[in-house]
Every structure is written in structure tokens, then in C-alpha cells.
Amino acid sequence: MQGAKLRKRLLAGEAIGMINPHQTSPTLAGRLVELGADTIFIDCEHGAWSYEDVRVAGQIVRGAGGAIIVRPDSHQRSTLIRYLNVGGDGLMVPMVANAEEARQIVDTVRYAYPRDHEDRLVICMIESADTVKNELDAMLKVDGVDVFFVGPNDLAQSMGYTSFTPYGLEPPADVDEMVERALGKISAAGKVGGTLTKADRLNHWLQKGARFIYYHSDPILRQGISAFQAQLR
What we know:
Order of helices and strands: HEHEHEHEHEHEHHEHEH
Shape: globular
Distance between the termini: 47 Å
Number of strands: 8
Oligomer: single chain
Largest sheet: 8 strands, parallel, barrel
Strand order of the largest sheet: 1-2-3-4-5-6-7-8
Helix content: 40-55%
């Protein structure tokens, strides 16, 4: 499994890029790694990936030298274990609200793989303003969480805004400030932070301390196709 390699790079201060292929396609996932992606995001919360799809994608992506990070649809213990068992190099668990929930996720990974749990990356998603304000400091003391990932879309909704797309509307200024506040706490605690970005804001979030960067494949494809079509016309 590639989770340990990703952790080593993050602890060395490197930034890791994670690409969402947006398609339930193990071959596309593998191709994105061949083209340079560090790791592939397998979205089982909003996507249509089956357990078998995850298994096949993991084999193809690792064969290409990358890793897959699986986002489950819940904290359900059996669900997390199954995604690990079919080949997830790491879990990116949504809506982690407090230290106890973070600790339970870590305990589940260690239960599933008592001897080699360090081969899997553990990512807790911070998606509520209340969590940033009141719970994050305690969460950062939980041993075994590799990345604290600040999700701006759900964070925005927790602040009363309509969700925005990562490559469309700009987030409201106070949402940006909340993401920056969270990343500041994470960095100050000596932990690894991450967030979602667009290409033109990548340097901004790197400067704010994010090192695990989530990016969508759609804007990459859109930009390439638009440039091609423009030349045709």
C-alpha cells in the first residue's frame, strides 16, 4: 500500500496533489497517475464507485505508481473497514466533528490492520465552522490522523451560504477566512493541513499552509478542450 509513502512525503514538507477523475473509471484513474497525479480521489460519498470498482482502481493506480484515497459515505465502522480491505491506500472521512469521532476513525483503521495500519493514510475532513471554532484544537491532539482537510463547500453551507463549485463561483470572503483560520491552527500544531482549490489559487493555499491539495479533473479537461476548439475556430 502507498499510504506510508504519501505520509513520508508530507512529513518531509512536500505538497501532495490529489485528483478527482469524476468518472467511475479505474482506467482513467490509472491514466491520470501516468500523467503525473500523486494520488487519486475515489468519491464513494457522492460518486457511483462500487467496492469492486475500488478494488480494480487500486490495482491499476498502484501499478502506475500512485495511490487511491477513498471517501466513504459515513463513519460506519464496517464501511471503513471494507474500503480498506478492497484496497484503499487511505480514507478521507467526511464530516468529522470532534476529537472523539477522529479517535474512532483512527481506532477503526488500527483494528482493521493491527500490524500494518501505518500503510494507510488517515484524513479527517473538517467541514463545519463550529468544528473549526470549538473542536479543532482538541482534534489536533488525536494521534494517528495524518491530514486535517478543510472542506470549503460544506464549510460554506455551515456558515449559511449556498455551496459553490470548486471551479466556478468564488467562495465568500469569510469562508476563505475560516479556511485560513483552520489551516493556521493545523500548521501551528505541527500537523498537515489540506484543502480544495482551483489552479489559480493554488499558491495562495500553499502559502497558508495547505500541503494536501485536492483538485478536480474537469477544469483541466475543460481548459484543454476549450484551447483546442478555439484553435479549430
